[in-house]
Write a structure and sequence with these properties.
The complex is a heterodimer of chains A (368) and B (124). Chain A is α+β, with helices and mostly antiparallel strands and 368 residues long. Among the domains of chain A are: 8-55 and 144-233, Gyrase A, domain 2, CATH 3.30.1360.120; 283-357, Aminomethyltransferase beta-barrel domains (Elongation Factor Tu (Ef-tu), domain 3), CATH 2.40.30. Helices cover 22% and strands 34% of the residues of chain A. In chain A, the strands form four sheets. Chain A has a six-stranded mixed β-sheet with strand order 11-12-13-10-4-14, with helices on both faces. Chain A has a six-stranded antiparallel beta barrel with strand order 15-18-17-16-19-20. In chain A, strands 6-7-8-5-9 form a five-stranded antiparallel β-sheet, with helices on one face. Chain A is globular, with a radius of gyration of 21 Å. Chain B has 124 residues and is of the alpha+beta class. Chain B has a single domain, classed as RNA polymerase II/Efflux pump adaptor protein, barrel-sandwich hybrid domain (OB fold (Dihydrolipoamide Acetyltransferase, E2P), Beta Barrel), CATH 2.40.50.100. Chain B has four helices and nine strands, in the order βββαβββββααβα. Classes of the chains: A alpha+beta (368), B alpha+beta (124). Chains A and B meet through loops of A and strand 4 of B.
Chain lengths: 368, 124
């Protein structure tokens, strides 16, 4: 197989290969799809024990300067001014029409703000920041740190060996500490719905850290196949698939991240559109769907009501090894979604019974 | 006459005079990743060479499986309904997908033998 020359590799590429990874291209990076044991086992281990994900492809951006919080506040619906030191929040960057430019994690740090953004949107976000923020702050992509995610019920126990204080932080909190003489930043967060941690660690130490971690039999490497299944089970959106510039956070069911005060004050980009959309009601909404058949509806599958009228489309789907059935999420016309729960999904020109179910498909187990 | 042949779409076909078993190769299985569901054909379906007969859903994607030769579906491997992972663990034996009749034995000689297929996947 020929790889495009522009394809990038993370620092851990060689380690992934040694542990039997099969690679796929994702957002311009060559990332592990699965290791020797395969996606299904990796998914189950993540919910029963702990898994390590190399998510270094994601963009880590620091915004340095005293006014960083205040200035970023104009660009996102969340109240960044109220974020306490080392506290994180999930948010979105919007355009004037309320469309989502990216979803991201924002953390208040001692010297400013740090962001974790999608790999595919890294340059776009940096351009927006440079364009919209004043010269009093400096936005910079952190190239020399890897980002490691350890997810699952045993992640705390696995990491306590290295970081004694780790259980003192709660979900969406973090702290700066040391690993083998280098500074690392740990936050209790993730993309699986499980208790878990994300660690930003210098590239020079990341291989050594992972090699040490996997000596523990409670933790295994897991690839992007498992990561995708886990985040669908947890009802979480993937940018570019479940959310994009044509979808608003209201339609995506992300109302909870919008600050009511900021919406009333119309103090962020896209706020007028969102306020209007909340008053009128969105035309479509994101829903979770479950099937009786094991057939998998994937991005683009059509959704019909029982009168065979097309009422929506699927954005992500998978077979859930933890639930032993096929699940998907997508958008359904809001009036239809209110009226009924049974729908039909088309896969390869065949129609399958399905019903709307509450998301997350598997309850979150965050340590709040 | 018992022989195994291979297609460019990574199916194998084990021919035993009047009928044949069809499945996907071990190479194909590795490319797909964990198999979670197989859409089996209906018994009695007439299929023409190159036509889609079954679909394999893996964690990664859905892949169509084509008829390596023309004939009629005589039997399907029901055990794949409960254990689709047989495709991953034993693709070229117990992972057979359907059994079919052989309409035109001439079509068989156009398929690759083991060594031709081995060379094909190296070049692919």
């Amino acid at each position: 197989m020929n790889q495009k020359e522009t394809t990038q590799k993370t620092t851990l590429f060689d380690l992934h290969a040694v542990y039997g990874a099969r690679f796929i291209e994702f957002a311009g990076y060559l990332v592990p799809l699965a290791y020797g044991t395969g996606t299904i086992k990796e998914t189950i281990v993540s919910r029963q024990s702990a898994s390590i994900f190399d998510v270094s492809h994601m963009g880590q951006i620091n915004i340095m300067g005293d006014s960083a919080s205040l200035e970023l506040d104009r660009l996102v619906p969340s109240n960044i001014g109220l974020l306490k030191l080392n506290k994180s929040c999930y948010s979105v960057l919007l355009n004037e029409n309320g469309g989502i430019l990216d979803d991201l994690i924002i953390t208040k740090r001692s010297d400013g703000i740090s962001l974790v953004v999608n790999a595919s949107q890294k340059n776009k976000i940096l351009n927006i920041l440079n364009d919209q923020l004043s010269s009093k702050v400096i936005s910079k992509v952190i190239e020399n740190n890897s980002l490691i995610s350890i997810q699952g019920p045993k992640s705390k126990e696995v990491l306590e060996k290295y970081f004694k204080e780790i259980d003192k932080i709660k979900f969406m909190h973090g702290y700066e500490t040391e690993y083998d003489g280098v500074n690392v930043y740990i936050s209790r967060s993730g993309y699986t719905g499980e208790d878990g941690f994300e660690i930003s660690i210098p590239n020079i130490k990341v291989e050594n850290f992972i090699e040490s971690l996997i000596e523990n039999s409670n933790v295994n490497l897991a690839g992007f196949g498992a990561r995708d299944v886990l985040r669908i089970e947890a009802g979480l959106c993937l940018y570019g698939q479940d959310i994009n510039t044509n979808i608003s956070p209201i339609e995506a069911g992300l109302n909870w991240l919008i600050s009511k005060n900021k919406l009333n004050d119309l103090s962020f980009v896209g706020s007028e559109f969102l306020k209007n959309q909340i008053e009128l009601g969105p035309k479509m909404c994101r829903v979770g769907i479950e099937l009786d058949s094991k057939v998998i509806p994937r991005n683009g599958s059509k959704i019909f009501n029982l009168n065979n009228k097309k009422v929506g489309f699927v954005t992500s789907g998978c077979f859930s090894p933890n639930l032993s059935r096929s699940i998907c999420m997508g958008y359904i016309s809001a009036s239809e979604a209110l009226d009924q729960e049974k729908f039909l999904v088309e896969v390869r020109n065949k129609i399958f019974d399905s019903k709307i179910v509450k998301m997350p498909f598997i309850p979150h187990k965050y340590k709040k | 006459m018992k022989e195994i042949k291979y297609t460019k779409d990574h199916e194998w076909i084990k021919i035993d005079d009047e009928y044949a078993y069809v499945g996907i190769t071990d190479f194909a299985q590795k490319q797909l990743g964990d198999v979670v569901f197989i859409q089996l054909p209906e018994i009695g379906t007439d299929c023409t060479i190159g036509e889609e007969v079954a679909v394999i859903e893996s964690v990664k994607a859905a892949s169509e499986i084509y008829a390596p030769i023309s004939g009629q579906v005589l039997e399907v491997n029901e055990s794949l309904n409960d254990s689709p992972d047989i495709i991953n663990s034993d693709a070229e034996n117990n992972g057979w997908i359907w059994k079919m009749s052989v309409k035109d034995s001439g079509q068989i000689s156009d398929l690759m033998d083991k060594s031709a297929y081995s060379n094909f996947i190296i070049e692919d």
